[in-house]
Specification:
Shape: globular
Distance between the termini: 40 Å
Number of strands: 13
Radius of gyration: 20 Å
Number of helices: 10
Number of domains: 1
Structural class: alpha/beta
Strand content: 15-25%
Protein name: Glycosyl transferase family 2
CATH class: Alpha Beta
CATH architecture: Alpha-Beta Complex
Organism: Thalassovita mediterranea
Helix content: 25-40%
C-alpha cells in the first residue's frame, strides 16, 4: 500500500433536484474526492441540479440529452440499464488520474461505514486493501419503511452464503420468504469499488472484468455497507411498481432465487400474481409484511444479526454542501 487513497463515484440519475443534492451531499460528507453525475435526460429540474452541482469543486455533472448521445456517436439507449453501463464505461477513462478507486451506485443508494466516520473513513477502508486487489464488494442493506411516515432509520440485511440465506429468509418472512432472495426486493449483489487506470478493465453494474476474469482478486468490505432506499415508503413503492415490473428491478427477465423445478418463482411473477389476484390492497399487504419496520419483523431480523439503524440526516448534509439551494 502506498499513500492514502482517493475515491469517487459515478451515478446515472433521473430524480428531483433535492434527491440529487441529498445523494451528492451525503457522499461529499463521506470524503468523496470526485462525483461524476450523469443527469439522465434534459429537463428543468436537471438544469437546476446541473447549475448547483457545477458550482461545487468536487462534482462533475453532465446532462445526457439527445445532443450528448449524438456527440458520443450513437443513439440514446432505450433501457436505463444500458445507459448506466455506457456512462460507467465512459467515466472510467475520465476518472483515471483523478481518483484511485471508483464505484457505480444509484441515487437511492448511500455508502455507510460501519465504524464512526471520524475514526475510520471510506478512504481508510480502501487504503487498507492489498495492492493486488482490483475490486472490492459493498454488500447491500435495504431500507424498511417507518410506520409513522418519518425518516428512515431501519435497514435489513441478508447473509452471504446461499443456503444460510435461503433458510433464514423463509424463517424471517414466513408468508413470502420461499420466493424472496434474502427478503430483498432489489439486488442482493451489492456494488463494487474498482481501481482506476487498470488496463483492460470493463465495468458493469454489479461486476467488473479484466480480460476473461470476472472480479479478479475481489475482496469483501465488511466495514462498508450500501444502504439502499429502494422502497422506503408505500407511495414510493407503488408509484414505481409498474415501471419496475416492466423495465426495472422486477422485470420478467430476472431469474427466481431458486430453480423453477424446486418451486422457484421470479419476483416478477410473484408480484404480478399478487396484484392480479387482489389488486392494490393485496400488494399493500405484501409491502407491509416485507418492507415495513414492523417490530415483529425487526425482532426476527435482529435475532439473526440482520437489522441495523442509521440516521442519514440528509437535510443537514444538503444544507452544508449546497447552501444556495
Amino acid at each position: 500500500m502506498s499513500g492514502r487513497k482517493t475515491w469517487g463515484l459515478v451515478s446515472t440519475i433521473k430524480a428531483p433536484v433535492e434527491e440529487v443534492l441529498n445523494f451528492c451531499a451525503h457522499h461529499l460528507d463521506l470524503g468523496a474526492h470526485r462525483l461524476f453525475i450523469y443527469l439522465d435526460d434534459d429537463s428543468v429540474d436537471h438544469r437546476a441540479a446541473f447549475d448547483l452541482l457545477s458550482a461545487h469543486p468536487k462534482v462533475r455533472p453532465l446532462i445526457t440529452d439527445d445532443a450528448y448521445w449524438q456527440k458520443r456517436g450513437f443513439k440514446r439507449r432505450a433501457k436505463h440499464q444500458s445507459r448506466q453501463f455506457e456512462n460507467a464505461k465512459h467515466v472510467y477513462r475520465r476518472a483515471t488520474g483523478q481518483v484511485d478507486w471508483l464505484t457505480h451506485i444509484d441515487v437511492d443508494e448511500f455508502l455507510w461505514p460501519t465504524v464512526a466516520q471520524d475514526k475510520h473513513t471510506v478512504a481508510d477502508v480502501l487504503t487498507g486493501l492489498s495492492d493486488d486487489c482490483q475490486c472490492a464488494r459493498i454488500r447491500p442493506w435495504e431500507a424498511l419503511a417507518p410506520l409513522d411516515g418519518g425518516p428512515q432509520h431501519d435497514f435489513k440485511g441478508m447473509s452471504i452464503p446461499a443456503a444460510q440465506r435461503r433458510a433464514e429468509t423463509e424463517e424471517i418472512y414466513p408468508d413470502y420468504g420461499t420466493h424472496l432472495n434474502g427478503g430483498f426486493l432489489s439486488h442482493v449483489a451489492g456494488k463494487m469499488f474498482y481501481r482506476t487506470g487498470v488496463e483492460g478493465m470493463k465495468v458493469q453494474i454489479h461486476n467488473v472484468w479484466i480480460g476473461e476474469d470476472m472480479n479478479p482478486q475481489q475482496q469483501e468490505l465488511p466495514d462498508l455497507r450500501l444502504l439502499h432506499c429502494h422502497a422506503g415508503s408505500w407511495d414510493h413503492f407503488y408509484t414505481a411498481f409498474h415501471f419496475r415490473l416492466d423495465k426495472g428491478s422486477y422485470r420478467s427477465e430476472l431469474r427466481p432465487n431458486k430453480p423453477v423445478e424446486e418451486g422457484g418463482v421470479s419476483l416478477h411473477d410473484l408480484l404480478s400474481g399478487i396484484y392480479a389476484d387482489g389488486g392494490e390492497a393485496a400488494l399493500r399487504r405484501f409491502y407491509d409484511t416485507v418492507c415495513a419496520a414492523d417490530p415483529d419483523l425487526i425482532a426476527r431480523l435482529s435475532a439473526k444479526g440482520l437489522h441495523m439503524t442509521a440516521d442519514l440526516d440528509l437535510d443537514a448534509k444538503r444544507r452544508r454542501h449546497f447552501p444556495d439551494y
